[in-house]
Amino acid sequence: MTIANGRTALVTGGGQGIGETIALRLAASGASVAVLDRNAEAADDVARSINASGGKAIAVEADVTDRGAVAAAVDQTVAAFGGLHILVNNAGVTRDNLLFKMTDDDWSLVVDVHLRGAFLCTQIAQKHMVDAQYGRIINMSSLSALGNRGQVNYSAVKAGLQGMTRTLAIELGPFGVTVNAVAPGFVETAMTAATAKRLGVSMDEFKSSVAATLAVRRTGGPSEIAHAVAFLAADESWYITGQTLYVDGGARLG
Which of 134, 154, 239, 246 is catalytic? Predict the structure, then answer.
């Protein structure tokens, strides 16, 4: 599946990890891409890579928890490319800890970035999609939405994003806008490396232990997640909405 010429995507947290791979994949599929990140240098690196490969991209610096910054980012995107058709709410952070050790700041930061960030970006972006009678919104959830020790904050927001997805699908469907979520399982990123470090094991040991529990007996990478996002962002996926697609190697089948 491809994305029609003239479609514009905004990828939050697009400067690194899964977000970077999503931005690159959407550009390769035909979209013009606004790479949004708090780290302006990282966003610029990704945008330059896309442009060097023959795609179209701009870098946008913004904090997704700041309404004014998000509004300015959307305006910048629309001014550069003439519209906004695809939003990927990918920006996220982790502050893992067991409940009795978790601080108020650990809780609030994760809630603000994931839930407030997705709310603000969607609320502001959907105006352009409704006007165009076309839109694709993809929220990044996680297998952790089903519960994961040491991640009460992260699990709560990832489950919350699934509820948000279903509600927004109902509200925005009549205007040609689909809303879906992608829920990755174990993916090798800086975040999972940090988890391995917290657990006191090497990344290779961590990957091997997880792979042994999966139906496919291997862990995934950012490209598998980007493929799922590109599928949901395609024009042909118009009849899929309100869904959460788990991309987890069969983690729940055992």
Answer: 154
| Span 171-190, average pLDDT | 96
CATH classification for the domain delimited by 8-185+221-246, as one of 3.10.450.50, 3.40.50.720, 1.10.10.10, 3.40.50.970: 3.40.50.720
Whether 239 sits among the annotated catalytic residues: the reply is no
Q: pTM of whole model > 0.85?
A: yes
Model confidence over 100-126: pLDDT tens digits? 999 999 999 999 999 999 999 999 999
Domain parsing of the chain, residue ranges: 8-185+221-246, 187-219
For the segment 181-198, what is each residue's pLDDT rounded down to a tens digit?
999 999 998 878 888 887
Instruction: Write the CA distances from 89 to 114, 119, 158, 200, 244, integer angstroms.
Output: 8, 9, 12, 31, 14
